[in-house]
Amino acid sequence: SDLLGISSGRGCAIGEIGMAAIDLKRPSFILCQYSDSQTYQKTLAKLSIYQPTEVLIPDTLEASHNDLFLTLTNYFKETKIVSVKRQYFNSAQGLEAMRNLCNADYSHVDLVILNKYYALCAAAALVMYVEHKHRANFMPHTLKVAYESVEGSVIIDLETARRLELVTSENSIMDQNKYTLFGLMNNTVTVSGHRRLRMEILQPYSSRHIIEKRLDKVQYLVENEDKLGSLQNIDDLFQLKEVLISVPMWVLKINEYLKPDKIKNIKHAKRTRFSRSEALNIRNYCPTLKICFKLEDQRYNTIKEKIAQVLHEDSKPARGFQAAELNRCFCIKQEVNGLLDAARVTYSKLLDNMQDLIGSYSEQCGLEMSLCLTSDLGFHVKFVLGKRQDPITFQLPAIFTNVKRRGNVYHASTIETFSYNARISRVVQEIQLITNALGLKPSASWCIYVGCVYNLCEVVSELDVISSLAIVSCQKDYVRPIFSSDLIISAGRHPILDKFDSNPIPNNTYASRDKNFNIITGPNMAGKSVYVLQVALLQLMAQVGSYVPAASAELRVTDHIFVRKGLIDSLECNASSFVCELKEIMYTIENIKESSLLILDEICTGVKSDEGTAVAWAISESFLKRPAFTFITTHYHFLTNLEKIYPNVTNYQMEAVESTEEGIRFGPLVYTYRLIDGVTQISNYGIRLLLQTALPESIKMDAVKFSEQLLQR
């Protein structure tokens, strides 16, 4: 249900991107504007976070086959790209719309968005599209309008998120979230918490102060697990906003029953909210969460009182067609509207007459019959055959039509029930029209209170995410990370392996400003890639605000994480693996900063080994001169000579033990999956691995022979 508008700069402003997003189920406007590169990595990352179903772009982008349009269509094939006339991307109209929709509690955002030309252009087109295409208006001053800055969060490009398997896994077809970081950390119980946690994993905090505050809250719940259980019962209150702020254009249609149900949902949720906050007693047992002031807003009581003036105390959402219809007809209190009371008296009399009619049918047929209401038959006759009656030979009287049988249960109608249904239907329509009108009156007067509802929803999602992180942090051998200028992890474990492997091998990690470039060598299957990805995942977990699987963890707050991997081609970009790799390296060089974390996994393997070594050496020299922490895995052992030239380079290897059997030159390797100092001395590990496969023996022997011949040369 997410809709998103994008506007881009032209001429001297090329690369400037404005974005506006809204979720129609949980309406709030999010605006952002930033400068992007030619590959639009920031824009792709944003779209990955929002997962929009529709993306609006100016029609001039599609007409000119703009790079942004081509990038969006290549990477998001399942997303509907909608071209809108450029004239609707109007910043003045966007600013006017935001000022008209923004709730007073969030009016300060006006100062921020005032000069965000491209974000306002996108907002103008999005508001127009929502009103005309989705036929939904919003009451004035009811929306939360927020500006989301790129600053203050870790930038993770789309390819990095995929390679780290943050929210989706290509290795799990049935459940794409199972073997992901999101699948590991997701213990949320509300939709709002689910969405917020996913967003924070893809865009973690980069402010040490915010991270420490989040960790304080998580630590409190870890140390008080009895309180953690209570928070898992919290309700999702995002449904409160919809009726307060939306005014669908079809609301006055005769058969539209949305409003009474939504108001009953609010009433029920409000009642739950008051009892829940009282039960949790947040003020007394959880002062470190510092959210009680948001729950003490007197506007909650005002909304509750306004609801009580209209709805019955016992009115609540009902399941089943019959119960829901009766509930809708009688949810409004008596003496609120004379016409409504008269219509309900008529409705009750018609039902009584039908009950008498069903009683006469029961006497006539000698069966116990009852009045039933379904969506397809309306009010009709329902009866069950006795055990002694044979369903095959049983014959209904001719007065019954539209007979439907489910086992021994029969549903049938008659001419009389048809007549009563028509009369009841007209009365119900009248009742619903009056009920809708009465329901809209209080919701219109609640608009000034919608700000507190947003606050409440924010509290719920925050509590849900904190409790989810606390559940993860309660696991055995998880530790609270601390932050400094170095990266020192003792006995760190890969978080996904730690969950699904009973005995993962822990490893240490060290990086500092003086030793910031680490080269890892080792045979295939030794665990090099798993190790370097583990470093990035532990960094992400810490900056989301979770404990990490390690004996101790000291980390440097990062603002950008890059994961670059060789042998990844792109059909969309019509580029080979080496070309794609060079494009990603170019983007990394342009955007890497002092506090960035860079993972280079077997780069430059898509060309001849001597050329690949030369390019990898040049790339490594470029990065090792920067203060970013870099971890590189490679089979090019020549790169390990960098340690002899540059003091900030350190060589490590993933340990593997060679076979000790005599007479076996290419014996199997025993992998310990432990990181040790130095450069691996094992040779021919490709041949060793080949010999362990099920390939034909002739191929294996030929490979060994040719390998020996090449070594002799």
From TrEMBL:
<keyword id="KW-0547">Nucleotide-binding</keyword>
<dbReference type="GO" id="GO:0140664">
    <property type="term" value="F:ATP-dependent DNA damage sensor activity"/>
</dbReference>
<dbReference type="InterPro" id="IPR027417">
    <property type="entry name" value="P-loop_NTPase"/>
</dbReference>
<dbReference type="Pfam" id="PF05188">
    <property type="entry name" value="MutS_II"/>
</dbReference>
<feature type="domain" description="DNA mismatch repair proteins mutS family">
    <location>
        <begin position="515"/>
        <end position="708"/>
    </location>
</feature>
<dbReference type="GO" id="GO:0005524">
    <property type="term" value="F:ATP binding"/>
</dbReference>
<dbReference type="Pfam" id="PF05192">
    <property type="entry name" value="MutS_III"/>
</dbReference>
<dbReference type="InterPro" id="IPR011184">
    <property type="entry name" value="DNA_mismatch_repair_Msh2"/>
</dbReference>
<dbReference type="InterPro" id="IPR045076">
    <property type="entry name" value="MutS"/>
</dbReference>
<dbReference type="InterPro" id="IPR036678">
    <property type="entry name" value="MutS_con_dom_sf"/>
</dbReference>
<keyword id="KW-0469">Meiosis</keyword>
<keyword id="KW-0067">ATP-binding</keyword>
<dbReference type="InterPro" id="IPR007696">
    <property type="entry name" value="DNA_mismatch_repair_MutS_core"/>
</dbReference>
<dbReference type="GO" id="GO:0030983">
    <property type="term" value="F:mismatched DNA binding"/>
</dbReference>
<dbReference type="InterPro" id="IPR007860">
    <property type="entry name" value="DNA_mmatch_repair_MutS_con_dom"/>
</dbReference>
<dbReference type="GO" id="GO:0007131">
    <property type="term" value="P:reciprocal meiotic recombination"/>
</dbReference>
<keyword id="KW-0238">DNA-binding</keyword>
<protein>
    <recommendedName>
        <fullName>DNA mismatch repair proteins mutS family domain-containing protein</fullName>
    </recommendedName>
</protein>
<dbReference type="Pfam" id="PF00488">
    <property type="entry name" value="MutS_V"/>
</dbReference>
<dbReference type="GO" id="GO:0005634">
    <property type="term" value="C:nucleus"/>
</dbReference>
<dbReference type="GO" id="GO:0006298">
    <property type="term" value="P:mismatch repair"/>
</dbReference>
<dbReference type="InterPro" id="IPR036187">
    <property type="entry name" value="DNA_mismatch_repair_MutS_sf"/>
</dbReference>
<feature type="domain" description="DNA mismatch repair protein MutS core">
    <location>
        <begin position="176"/>
        <end position="500"/>
    </location>
</feature>
<dbReference type="InterPro" id="IPR000432">
    <property type="entry name" value="DNA_mismatch_repair_MutS_C"/>
</dbReference>
<comment type="similarity">
    <text>Belongs to the DNA mismatch repair MutS family.</text>
</comment>
